[in-house]
Amino acid sequence: MSNLYEKLEKILKTQINHSLYGKNELVLVKEILSNDETFKSCDKLEFIDPENHDDFTSTKIIKWSEDLVFTGECKILSLTLTPEMYNPSTMFKIVKDKASISPIMYKIDTFIPYKRIMLEFNLEDEARNNKENVREELHDLLDKVLDEPETYRINGDRDILIRGIFQSV
User: Fold this and answer.
1) HSE-up (13 A, CA, CB side) for residue 21
2) 129: containing domain
């Protein structure tokens, strides 16, 4: 991730709803945005005051990306950090030491939250070695996972959404 993304993410994580909305809140990031390549080509970078602007139908929401460059007139209404999203194809990948912990999921019928701990082991080792050794290794691994759950946590992706009126992107 770029330097701009990291700076904005750090600021947005401290805000209510992980968002900066309107001119009064966006002044926190004016200097950061003005000095970044993403907004340097803007003829004019402004922040919309929602109290003095009544037509929000003309605003666009753009997902921030590394190669995003705004040109012309740029009027920003809000910056928002999305919730952490998980890609289903990477949800069950091993994170560290042949183990991982899933994010919180919910049972469809009862909406009860749960997590999954995944431990990976080689079935051939179990067949060749003493089952007690494999069992002991799995117990040790489970202890490590439960002692340091954050290091085994599957990470999702977060994005920054920019809402405003832009001449060209």
Assistant:
1) 9
2) 99-152
User: Are residues 56 and 125 both part of a single domain?
Assistant: no
- The CA distance from 93 to 155, in Å, is 10
Confirm whether 71 is domain-assigned.
Answer: yes
Q: How many CA atoms lie within 13 A of 121 on its CB side?
A: 19
> Are both 105 and 145 inside the same structural domain?
yes
Alpha-carbon gap, residue 156 to 83, rounded angstroms: 9
Output the pLDDT for position 127.
61
Q: Which tens digits make up the pLDDT trace of 94-138?
A: 899 999 999 888 999 999 999 999 998 877 766 666 777 788 889
Q: Write out pLDDT tens, residues 56-76.
A: 677 889 998 888 888 888 889
